[in-house]
Amino acid sequence: MLFSEARRRDVVSTDTATRVARVDGFVVAAGPARVVLLRLGKVAGEGSLLSWEDLEGFGPDAATIADVSVIRTPHDEMEKRADSRELEIMGKRVITERGDELGNITDVDFDLDTGAVTTFLTRKEAIAADRLIGHGRYAVVVST
Amino acid sequence: MTASDRLLRARELTGRPVVTLGGELEGEIKDVVFERSGGRIAGFTLRNPGLFSRARKDSLPWESVHGVGRDAVMIRDPDTLVPTKELAPRKQARKADVLRDRVLTDNGRDLGKVIDVVLQGGTDLEVVGYEVEASEALGTAGRRVFIPLPDTVAVSGENLILPAAATEFVSEDLAGFGAAVDQFRARLRESQEEA
After folding, report:
1. B97-194 domain in CATH 3.40.605.10?
2. Which of A109, B82, B145, B190 has the fewest beta carbons closer than 10 A?
3. What ipTM was predicted for this assembly?
4. pLDDT tens figures, A97-137
5. Among A97, A135, A137, whose Cβ lies nearest the Cβ of B67?
6. Model pTM score
7. Domain map of chain B by residue range?
8. Are A65 and A24 in the same domain?
9. A33 to chain B, closest Cα gap in Å
10. How far is the alpha carbon of A96 from chain B, nearest alpha carbon, in Å?
11. A61, A107: one domain
C-alpha cells in the first residue's frame, strides 16, 4: 500500500474501541528499508509517536493498538528528528551514492503486514527500496 | 567504466553540496586544494551553505570522497573531515600552486602551465588529465587544451613529467577528452608490453 493511501487513517484502541489518533506520517529507516515509526495527529495525550512493533494491526480501514499508552514521546535523537518532521520522506530528494539526483519522492509503497518498504516512487521512476543507504534531513541516498 | 564517463574540471565543484551517505548536508565545496607537486588533489575546503557563509576550519580530504556526481559530492561520514591545516600544511596548498606547475614531456618539451585538473567523477574517482595553457610546443600556443595523464605519473619537484606520447592525445574540449585519455593509456600499455 502507498503512504498516500495509508495516511489519514484512524488509529483505534482495541481496549476501548475508540478512535485515539490519526496517522499523519511514516518514518522510514534503512537496513533493510522499513517503517519504524508512525507519526500521529489528533492525539489527546502528550506524545505523537507510535513504534511499528506496538501496532496490533494495520488494516484497510484503521490501524489498531492495544491501548493508548503505547503512543509516546521521542526516545532518542533520531526520534526527536522524526517528531519534528526533519525525516519526513515524502517530497524529499533522492540522490545516488555517486552524487546524482533522481528526483523527489512522490510516494512510498510498503507492506501493511510487516512494515517493509518495497519501492520509492518519484515522478520519473520507481526505485527499489533495497537500494536505500541512508536517509537524512537533506536527502534519501540510494546505491547506484 | 571508461574515462569518457563524466569528466569534470576540479574547479567546477565549487558550490556543490557535500552530502553524507546518511543523507545529511555537511556543507558545500569552497575550493580545490592541490598538492604542492604533482597536480594531484589533496582535498577540498568547505563552506556552509548560503550566500554569506563563512569558510570553515575543517576540510574534506580526497580519500574521504565517496562519489562525485552532477548534483553533489558524497562522503561516507562527517567524522572523516579533517582540520584544514592538516590538509594544507604551511599554506602549501593554495589553489594557485598548481597553476605554477609546468607540464614537461619526458623528452624535454614544455607543454604549458596547468590551469585545472580534470577528474573522472562517479565512485571510481581519478585524476585523468590537466587543463593546460598551451605552450609553443603544442602548436596551439595560448589556447587552453586538455592533456591526458597515464595511470601513474612519476612526479618530482615543480614539474609534471609526462610521456611524450601525451602530445598526440591533446583535446580542445572535454567532450572528446575522455576518449583521448582511454586511447593514450591503451598506447602506453601496448608500448610497455612490447618492451
Report:
1. no
2. B190
3. 0.90
4. 999 999 999 999 999 999 999 999 999 999 999 999 999 99
5. A97
6. 0.85
7. 7-91, 97-194
8. yes
9. 13
10. 8
11. no
Looking up residue A112, the CATH number of its domain turns out to be 2.30.30.240
User: HSE of A125 in the Cβ direction (CA atoms, 13 Å)?
Assistant: 9
Establish if A88 belongs to a structural domain.
no
B24: nearest CB among A98, A101, A138: A138
Residue-wise pLDDT for B117-170, tens only, equals 888 888 777 888 889 988 888 877 788 999 998 876 655 556 678 888 888 999
**Does residue A73 belong to the interface with chain B, where contact is any CB pair within 8 Å?**
no
Asked if A17 reaches chain B (Cβ–Cβ under 8 Å), the answer is no
Across the interface, do A138 and B70 touch by the CB < 8 Å criterion?
A: no
Nearest-Cα residue of chain B relative to residue A137: B24
* Residue A117, domain extent: 93-142
Whether residue A74 sits in one domain with residue A14: yes
Amino acid at B19: V
**Helix (H) or strand (E) run with residue A80 in it:** helix A77-83
Looking at the partner chain, which of A100, A101, A133 has a beta carbon nearest the beta carbon of B21? Answer: A133
Interchain contact A137–B (C-beta under 8 A): yes
Classify residue A75: in a domain, yes or no: yes
Does residue A63 contact residue A71 with C-beta atoms inside 8 Å? no
Using a CB-CB distance cutoff of 8 angstroms, which residues of chain A are in contact with residue B19? Answer: 95, 99, 138-139, 141
> Testing the interface with B: which of A95, A102, A122, A135 to mutate, by most B Cβ within 10 A?
A95
Domain range B7-91, CATH architecture: Roll (2.30)
- CB distance B117 to B147 below 8 Å: no
Instruction: Clarify whether residues A121 and A59 are in a common domain.
Output: no
Question: Minimal Cα–Cα distance from B17 to chain A, Å?
Answer: 9
> B141-144 contacts: CB < 8 A, separation 24 or more?
B143/B172, B144/B115, B144/B172
End-to-end CA distance of chain B: 27
Nearest chain A residue to B16 by CA distance is A99
Other Cβ atoms closer than 10 A to B57: 11
Q: Provide φ and ψ at B159, rounded to 5°.
A: -105, 150
Q: Which has more pLDDT, B120 or B25?
A: B25
Which three three-digit cell numbers place residue B175?
567532450
